[in-house]
Amino acid sequence: MIATLLMFGASASLPRLAVLLAWGSVAGSFVQFAVQVPVVMRVAPDLRFALDLASEQVRIVSRNFAPVMISRGVVQVSAYIDTLLASLLPTGAVTGLANAQLLYTLPVSLFGMSVAAAELPSMSGEATADAQGHEALRRRLDAGLRRIAFFVIPSAMAFLALGDVLVAALLQTGRFRHEDAIYVWSILAGSSVGLLASTLGRLYSSSYYALRDTKTPLRFAIIRVALTTVLGYFFAIPLPRMLGVPPSWGAAGLTASAGIAGWVEMLLLRRAMNARIGGTGLPASYVAKLWTSAVTGAAAAWAIKLTIPMLPPVVAAVLIIGPYGLVFLAMTVALRIEGAMSTVRMLLRR
């Protein structure tokens, strides 16, 4: 997709460039698949492609495909509903929401979906119907939740406190002005409400799949989508009118309401899982230490933000976001938070 923009961006009109970019995405998807084939064939040289509709494994995949697709894609479905509702708002709301979603979905994919996908095979291998299997699944689930929270909580704080810096560094150029960055920041700040819940919920869904249960996550995903629709409409249209704020700010209400729906889904997933295998979840002390570290880092970043002069957005982001990350990491090490030292060692190796 980047290559498409570099090749045709200077010569093609915007409508034509959109079509070319779509085809670039198709080509990129094929390449993403193709580069994996040689490695797979080395690992599994006896693998053969065949159409076998009589296979029990194929029938299991076919039967589980629809509920898993909806459950796994609930973040994207909610984002699509938000986009539809944003189309009812003044001009600019859809674009602002789309720009915020570029950033919002990044930690969901990097830390939520990736950990959930990586843990699923191990969970499936260890999860059995007896108490020993439940204990093994509970240990892996809790470890994964802590790993996700370690990265997602500082991401949520960055969106809430430093979203204007992030947005300006990535998007502020050409016709995208500082005022546009502030508007997108408001939408991004709303998304921080449910960022942790959305990522934790993906791992809880994987634990259900490890138990060969695809229906429970589907049921709760449907509840989330319904809440996203109802709350999104209220937060986007009637609520700004009641508060006397410009209608365009209803886009921030969309992301905040989607976050509330995400928390409802995650809490339902956790309650049902705890009833099945025993208590799971993040210790309150662990979460408090992470938020304390994130708030301390944000305070240090704001002190720098208020003292430095007006600089190009990318330079300002380096001077502000960099110290935020360093202070957060230093605080987590000082508080002996699990995962902090391993992250430091990984960074030093690089």
Structural class call reads mainly alpha
Q: Report mean pLDDT, rounded to a whole number.
A: 88
Order of helices and strands: HHHHHHHHHHHHHHH
Number of domains: 3
**Low-confidence parts, pLDDT < 50 over ≥5 residues?**
none
Number of helices: 15
Strand content: under 5%
Number of strands: 0
What does the overall shape look like? globular
| First-to-last CA distance | 28 Å
List the helices and strands and how they pair.
Layout (H helix, E strand, L loop, with lengths): L1 H7 L5 H21 L2 H7 L12 H17 L1 H13 L6 H34 L4 H41 L6 H14 L3 H16 L4 H22 L1 H6 L6 H28 L6 H24 L5 H22 L5 H10 L1
Can you describe this structure?
The protein is mainly α and 350 residues long. It contains 15 helices and no strands. The protein starts with a helix and ends with a helix.
Labels describing this entry:
15 helices; mainly alpha; 81% helix
What would you say about this model in short?
The protein has 350 residues and is mainly α.
